[in-house]
Amino acid sequence: MALPWPVLAAAQSVQAAAVTATAPRAMVLDLPTNARRTAAQETDLGSYKVPISRYEQGRIQSVWAEGEVHRQAWQIQAPGLTTLQILAPLRTQLADAGFDTIFECEARDCGGFDFRYATDVLPEPDMHVDLGDFRFISAHRMGSDRPEYITLLVSRSAGRGFVQMIRVGPHIPGDTVLTASTKSPMQGPPQATPVATPQDAAVRPAQEGQTPTLTARLEAQGRAVLEDLDFTPGSATLGQGPFPTLASLASYLKTHPDRSVTLVGHTDAEGSLAANIALSKNRAGAVRQRLADLGVPSGQITADGVGYLSPLTSNLTAEGRSRNRRVEAILDTVQ
What CATH number is given to the structural domain containing 298? Predict the structure, then answer.
């Protein structure tokens, strides 16, 4: 439910801020020297629902913001860094630039899976979100004639950090809304040299020229598509198999009882959203049951579905629709 700006501030405060506000100025957030921008989208005049609450009772409360919209995704080489270590200096920079925090949350407090899929997120692989390890913050400051909003979404994989920034507000010339700095890279805690175990063989990275195994992708990227599944068209009936991806995933989970995954069903864009969400949830549930039949404890697997809300590619072609119909395993364990 979108809430109007007056809900967040008294009318007299907004009026006073508008009188004293200066001309819009670029918001430059310093990132480490090893940061790499992976995606950028700009709209001269657009809108964005700024989340201001956790996901509960089927929705996120939000502020409807209009103006120039910038969306960017960045990746940082950050082995050993936590999401809080990535977010904290950015949060401080926002405060120093005159932004007031409206809302801040951590994965489970945000609403986990539901929050992530109810808010705007740039697509994989440009922006990766670990459902069990992400942080979100929304902030605002008053411009000359309207408020300016920035949201930050931070997550990580085994060796990389991911930062998404969405800014909406008055026009700012140039491409300096978010930039990498020339400061020293972020330093994480010292990393111990790992000791190889027989179980590690299942997740060992592929050699050059080889395709990474499913479990290697799961460990490195936090997610993996179960590419060989076969469903009856239009139904959640899973074929008899055998399916090597399920055998591999089952083996991984049984040898790593401290790990858990969320199975997420996806569809193409044919049909209504409600019908596709129901179908995607049922297909993820069928995969969960098959993994349980293979001996995986039920406590290590959850299942959900998002219909056509998170496509891998365009639904305009038959090939694209085929790729978008899938079930993904998302590693939701936080070490």
Answer: 3.30.1330.60
Give the E-state strand segments of the chain in sequence order. Answer: 2-3, 30-31, 36-51, 62-77, 100-106, 134-142, 147-156, 160-169, 179-180, 223-225, 261-266, 301-305, 326-331
Q: Do 228 and 320 fall within a single domain?
A: yes
Name, in order, each residue with C-beta under 8 angstroms of 276's C-beta and a sequence gap of 6 or more.
267, 268, 269, 270, 307, 308
The C-alpha atoms of residue 115 and residue 297 are separated, in whole angstroms, by: 26
205 domain residue, yes or no: no
Reported as a single tens digit per residue, the pLDDT across 121-142 is 998 888 988 888 899 999 999 8
- At 212 the pLDDT is 62
Residue 24 near residue 142, CB atoms below 8 Å: no
> 72-109, pLDDT tens digit by residue?
999 998 777 889 989 999 999 999 888 999 999 999 89
